[in-house]
């Protein structure tokens, strides 16, 4: 089986959508293997978003991700990386397909950063890297 690192971002936690995200993950049949509500740090985010460093949305993204707690979790299941990205939907919540987390629950708030409720790892190597960042030792 496979593991993925999922975050309910600060907008999702603030809006009370943590339970809804977990409900969809569990209803799909994936297993929660770690779950923690916590506020990120610049150190963690610098690692987590290393690939975006230098992009125009990088600083606003980091500030947004520091704006409140995130629900960090590791989920497990056959092809869970692809599976969760499919549950989450496209990055832009305005055009993400209805039926997905972002498509059903997200929209464009006219802010500098896409506030799109969730993060999910995009490949096996990034999943293991991100799990090491958020849950060292797991
Ligand atoms: P993730 O699950 O990490 O969000 P993603 O493919 O949806 O993956 P990435 O391209 O990895 O998104 O970008 C990471 C995050 O940065 C996005 O989820 C979004 O919050 C923000 N972001 C990405 N592109 C833009 C953009 N053009 N303008 C503003 N914010 C952006």
From TrEMBL:
GO terms for molecular function: kinase activity. ATP binds at residues 9, 57, 85, 91, 102, 116. Residues 1-138 form the Nucleoside diphosphate kinase-like domain. NCBIfam families: PRK00668.1. PANTHER family: NUCLEOSIDE DIPHOSPHATE KINASE. Major role in the synthesis of nucleoside triphosphates other than ATP. The ATP gamma phosphate is transferred to the NDP beta phosphate via a ping-pong mechanism, using a phosphorylated active-site intermediate. This is Nucleoside diphosphate kinase. It comes from Nocardioides panacihumi. The lineage of its organism: Bacteria, Bacillati, Actinomycetota, Actinomycetes, Propionibacteriales. The gene is ndk.
């Amino acid at each position: 089986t496979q593991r993925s690192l999922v975050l309910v971002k600060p907008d999702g936690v603030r809006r009370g959508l943590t339970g809804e995200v977990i409900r969809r993950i569990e209803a799909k049949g994936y297993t929660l293997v770690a779950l923690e509500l916590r506020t990120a740090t610049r150190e963690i985010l610098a690692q987590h978003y290393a690939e975006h460093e230098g992009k125009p949305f990088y600083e606003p993204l980091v500030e947004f991700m520091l704006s409140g707690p995130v629900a960090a979790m590791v989920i497990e299941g056959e092809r869970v990386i692809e599976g969760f990205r499919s549950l989450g939907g496209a990055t832009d919540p305005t055009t993400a397909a209805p039926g997905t987390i972002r498509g059903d629950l997200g929209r464009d708030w006219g802010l500098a950063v896409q506030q799109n409720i969730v993060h999910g790892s995009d490949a096996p190597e990034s999943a293991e890297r991100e799990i090491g960042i958020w849950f060292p030792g797991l």
